[in-house]
Amino acid sequence: MEDEQRKDENGEFLVLICEGKKFHVRKTALFTQSKVFHTAFTGPFQESSSRTYKMSEDSLFIVNKMIDYFNNGDYDVSAVPEIEEQNISALQFHARMFSLADKYAVDILLSLSAAKYLDELRNSEMVEFLGSIPAVYELTPSYVRNLRDSHQARKDQSAAGSGKPTC
């Protein structure tokens, strides 16, 4: 902890705040992976001087996994108790992560969450697929086609009676 405080004094960490929880994230991780955070912390904005960014519209358990991604280059939904508490499927989680990655312009996380969504979609039951539709269509902009196109392919397969998708 002392090392972390010393590094904070040296300006190596920035703070993301979500639902009152503070995440200390390496500046290099944020700047190299997110255009939004880079601009917020280097531009003529309050975040630049305060070294904090409030993620007031975002869900803590999704942000927590985004921080895992910044620190480790990946995120895992198998150990997310909030998924059961929130009653969402892994498909819905990946769609929400995709939306968060799009919002903060984290391009590699955008690709990773889309790939995880597609992997999960290949083995999903119809009820999981149907449950993920609102997350895909309500949380992602219409011009971002990755998840929407995979939904259309799954829908077309289901209409043809082929059962599980072969995305």
Describe the structure.
It holds the Pfam family BTB. It comes from Fusarium oxysporum Fo47. This is BTB domain-containing protein. The termini are far apart. It is elongated and about 60 Å long. Strand 1 and strand 2 form a beta hairpin. With 167 residues, it is mainly alpha-helical. A 3-stranded mixed β-sheet has the order 2-1-3. It has 2 domains: 57 residues, 2-Layer Sandwich (Potassium Channel Kv1.1, Chain A); 95 residues, no CATH class. The chain contains 10 helices and 3 strands.
Defining key terms:
167 residues; Potassium Channel Kv1.1, Chain A; three-stranded mixed β-sheet; BTB domain-containing protein; SKP1/BTB/POZ_sf; BTB/POZ_dom
Query: What is the element string, with H for helices and E for strands?
Result: HEEHHHEHHHHHH
As laid out across the biggest beta sheet, the strand order is 2-1-3
Distance between the termini: 46 Å
H/I helix tally = 10
Morphology: elongated
Number of strands: 3
Mind describing the biggest β-sheet? Answer: 3 strands, mixed
In short:
The protein has 167 residues and is mainly alpha-helical.
